[in-house]
Amino acid sequence: MKTIEWGFLIVSYLFLGGLSAGLFFVSAIGAVLHGRIGPAATRVARLGAWLAPWPVMLGCFLLIFDLGKWYRFYKLFIHIRWLSPMSAGSWLLSVFVLISLSYSFAWLDAGQRRWFFSRLPRWLQPLRALDRDLSSWRRTLALTGLPVSVGVGIYTGVLLGAVQSRPFWNTNLVAQLFLVSALSTGCAALMLVLAWQRSEGEELRLLYFLDIALLTLELFIVLPYILHGRISVQAVRESLGLILGGPFTLSFWLLFVGLGLLAPLGIETYEVVSATSTAVSHPRRMAAGSAVLVLAGGFLLRYIFVYAGQMSTFR
Amino acid sequence: MPEKRYALVIDSRRCINCKACLVACRAEHGVPDRNSRNWINEESRGVWPKLLAVSEPEQCHHCSEPACVRVCPTGASRQRPDGIVVVQESDCIGCRYCVVACPYDARFLREDRGVVEKCDFCAARVDRGGIPACVETCPGKVRVWGDVNDRNGRLYQTIASRQYRVKKPEAGTGPNLYYLI
Fold this sequence. Notes:
The complex is a heterodimer. Chain A has eleven helices and no strands. Chain A has helices at 8-37, 39-51, 53-66, 85-106, 110-118, 138-161, 173-196, 201-230, 234-240, 249-274, 283-311. Chain B is 21% helix and 27% strand. Chain B contains six helices and ten strands.
């Protein structure tokens, strides 16, 4: 390893991109299944739709300014190279931003749209032509955007996993790990906002169920990543040393696995199991606490992977 | 006639670490002091009188299946038909995916230009009928450069008649820097 090329800006983007993907995914699931789950699903869907576009758009700004020549970012869109995860990812991101913005708009009701367009400065007034009721498009946009959001969530893992020269990354599990983590951070963000909004228990209960499933899945991806890596080729075994005795050991096991996975899993399971009615006990503090842990864990996962990966090599 | 494939053979036993190749490269391409397109790996071990000191030059391996070319999102990183891997500076956006992807850490970002750079086997010299600066200047006859597909050429005959190794073959990029054993 000569230098760490991808640093804090890239880690932040990976987190924000995953967050948006997760928010959209949860919202879309709610929008599609609200008939079966009930009005709480609709409330979750609406909240997720409104939140989804913004983290990834911020992330894209960070990405652009990380470039050696930021004003050349447009070149990503005059080429498409199928074998480059970054090329495919740029296009995926663009499609996702467009869909998620439209989807977000579709969840505004007439009053909210009126308010929004009345706030536009005079020179933007021609945009009033866009004041259309897209609510009938909610389900279509949700279904169209679902695979795109999965794409955005997973391609960040593919971006790393496709680098054959970095044994810490070059495993087929890293894409799944990033996807599941992304969806989990989406749930967590919604839990945090709902807790802050002092909402009823049913939305939180739905998110708990989903997040418990995602966190469990995440654990069962991390486990084989470690176990299989330990019995793999020398380069992989050595690269795992970075989190098994090396500089990232404490942050990986104590902070990420302990506080970022096991602790929220415990809190959410306890909340679901101990509830005697549809309303959960101590909803806001537990939900907010668990959510913050999941979000921090998601960021930490990407931090550890991006840095440790660049330090891993073949000897 | 098969396609040209330029490669480099290094005989480390002859290298005296004079660093003439480093100087020649830097002078030829105007590389700033903080980076280098080529470098010397130094290894010393043992206890006197049983000592080993090895100086082993290295640079871009101009791989047959370059990972850097595959991951480049704009196609700035590309491989010429003669096998030389180059960076088309006008297309490079400075994302550094190629720097991360190279198994040999051969690439670097030119901070003053915002684009990525690396050894290009002095492609401009080669196109004018010359040879890379590092090869031309080496006083120790460490380097043999040429077309590995030219059966009559010195490079092919060297690796056809000598044992050699390549670095990090398990990375799977098919490097074309051959180190004589």
